[in-house]
């Protein structure tokens, strides 16, 4: 794990084949199961926006919007979003987004998943520290979630 002020980097060795990990990432419905978002649509498609609502208790009113950037089956998935966008009374539309990249590498013992979220230095100073802190902790939680998810089939 490496962090700076602009980027969060996490990685985990998943004891699952790359095809299985890819399905957990690229199928919007399955992704939402472990990530905690009820996404509309089935697959993430480059150039297509996707929305869903959080499924975490107390946060079901929060809409998560991601703009899918790049999809390279079994290797790379990336999107842009507004980090820590949890205040429904705040309009995040004018703010820059961060880029979230998932990279998969097949290794002898499974699949190495690397998650990088970058662009925090462009977030308005009034939100930057909280957004970084919240997402850093969030990614710690999410890599455990995907590990459990792919281990269960």
TrEMBL record:
It comes from the Bacteria. Coiled coil: none annotated. InterPro entries: ASHA1/2-like_C, START-like_dom_sf. Transmembrane segments: none annotated. Residues 15-150 form the Activator of Hsp90 ATPase homologue 1/2-like C-terminal domain. Signal peptide: none annotated. Belongs to the AHA1 family. This is Activator of Hsp90 ATPase homologue 1/2-like C-terminal domain-containing protein.
